[in-house]
Specification:
It is a single chain. The chain is built from eleven helices and eleven strands. The protein has about 300 residues and is of the alpha/beta class. It has an eleven-stranded mixed sheet, with helices on both faces. α1 runs parallel beside α2 and α1 crosses α11. The longest helix has 19 residues. About 45% of the residues are buried.
Amino acid sequence: MKKIGITFGDTSGIGPEVAIKALAEIGATSRARFRCYAHPDIWKRWSPAIRSLLDMGVVQTVPIAEMPRIPWRSRHAAHGQIALRCLEAAVAECMDGYLDALVTAPVSKENLSLAGCSHPGHTTWLAEVTKTPSVSMAFWSRRLLVVLATVHCPLMHVPSLLTPERLDETLAHALDLCQRLGKKNPKIAVAGLNPHAGEHGLIGDEERDILIPWIKSKSMRNLIGPLPPDTVFYQAYHRQYDCVIALYHDQGLIPIKMVAFDSAVNISLGLPFTRTSPDHGTAVDIAGQDKANPASMVSAIELAMQL
């Protein structure tokens, strides 16, 4: 039986709420078992919602020593410290082979920074602690799959980051993900960087100088592009392509959030284990009010089990 680790994310946000709601929705009928990493006070606060799953053995709580007290404020180093302690414990069990996959609830970049973490989120932190040289960020929904060539960087830096080596890594990760999703010969589209994919050099040189030579060098019939970014996601949504390689963060995230705001899943590609996460943030404005929608967390858990 598969074992899925779930970290509850930033304790000031909706991570604990969506995690517990998702487990309550899918846990009782799931063939997997879930190990959950959270502050002990979270279990006390949400015990009525999760007790039946604990009693059935579907969910295990993982005790973590020397956890700081929860201040129940949105901006505090303790929230970042708690999130990191839980992540460290979960990743150790993934690397030992005890867990088959990891699902992470959202963390606050600000609280991680206050806790002394230099990383802006899960992806680069996971790459460092697992000593993974190349990790790509992907976003899955039922009608659209996007893999990013670059992630959290200023737009002015994107062209210089689009090296053949980085594009090769992104393509390799995209192909691997498509195959794991059952697409044996996927059709992959590459979005252009500039409007109209550069219009043959009239609106920027990056397509002509970087993307077209790289695509031609691959000699892959099912690698298509660069295509105008204002239409390629629409075409992929309507099944013309199995996956789109987007060149920068918002180019790929805007269409995903437009079509699947409540159900999209973030996937880290290249790690030595499967890691998924809901495609939303901590939403501290509604935390603790029983208003959070667990749909994206449900999708993240189900996709982790599938992958």
